[in-house]
Amino acid sequence: MKNSKKLIALTICIMLVTALLLGCGNGQQTSGNQPANGNGQENGDAPQHFTIGVINLMEHMALDAAFRGFVSALEARGFVDGDNITIHYANALGDQSTLSTIADQHVNRNADLILSITTPATQTMAGRTNTIPILGTAVTSYVVAGIIDSNERPGGNVSGTSDMNPVAAQIDLVVEMVPDAQTIGLIYNSGEANSVLQVQIAKERIEELGLQWEEVTVVTPADVMTAMQSLVGRVDAVYVPADNVMASSMPAVHSVAIDAGIPVVAGERNMVMAGALATMGIDYYELGYATGIMAIDVLVNGMNPGDMPIQFAPDVYSITINGLVAEEIGFTIPDRFQSYVVFPE
Hints:
Helix 2 (61-76) crosses helix 11, helix 3 crosses helix 4 and helix 5 (167-177) crosses helix 6 (193-208). Helix 12 (323-329) links the parallel strand 12 (318-322) and strand 13. This protein is α/β, with parallel strands linked by helices and 345 residues long. The protein is built from twelve helices and 13 strands. Residues 1-46 have low confidence and may be disordered.
C-alpha cells in the first residue's frame, strides 16, 4: 500500500512538472510572435510584406520615368523592394503576346497590387483579373480605352493616373514656333485608342486655326521611318502625340527631320530629349509618383481602386526646346522661347 501511494504521488509530481514546462513553452512562443521592429500588425501578427506586379508595354524614357516615380513614392513612405515589398517587373518590349504572358504570371502569382504602364498593358491586365487591384499610369483615357465607365467612379478593380496632355495647346505651340506653317503633319499609331483621341483633338484645333493637316499612321516602330519620309514636301511642321510606338522610335523621326529640316513638336518632354524639337507637356516621373501614393492607399489603407477617381496631371505644363535639334535642322528659336532651351548631353 505504501508503495502504491508513493507511485501515485510520483505520477502527480511528473504531471505537474510537465504542465509547468508546457506553460512556459507556450508563453515563450507567444512572446516570440510579437513584432520586434514595430512594423507588424496588432495582436502579434508578423510584419506585412506586399507583392507588387509591374507590367510595362515597352521601353522608352517616359515610361521608365513613370516607373521610377512610382518606386520613389513607395520608398518615401517606407516601402522598399526586397525589404517589406517585392516588386516583380516585366517588360513586353512591344509584343502583345508577351504582354498577355506577363499578365497571366502576375495573376498566378496572386500579387497584392499590379502597376500597369500604358493603355495596352492596362487593358490586358484588366482582362485577366477582376479581383487583384490594378493601378494604371501613362494611360490617356481609361474611358475611351474601354477600361472603366467613369473617371469619377471607375468601379471594378482598376484606377490610376492619366497622362492626357494639352494637345490643343501643343498645336498652338507649333503655330507660334512656325508662324508661316500652312499644313501640319500628324504621325501616330492608329492601333492605340489614346493616340487616336489625341490626334482627333489635334485635327480639331488645326481646323479651328484655319490650317490644313496631313496624317500618316504606323503600327510598329519599323513603319516610322517610311511614314515620316512620306510627309516630306507635304507639310511645314510635324506633330507627334504621346504615343508609345512613336516615343520608342524618335531616333527615326529625328533622322528624317534633320535631313528635311522639318520642326517636330512632340507630346511629351522625353520625346524632345530623344530627338523632337519642342513640347509643352507633363512630367512622367511626377505622374508615376502620384500613382505610387495611390498604391499606398490600396495596400495600407485598404481602399478599393474602383472607388478612387482617376487622377490627372496638374494643369501646369512646361515647355522644352531641344537646342541641338534646332541647330541640326537650321531652326531659329523665337526670342520669347529662349528660356526654355536645353542642350541634351
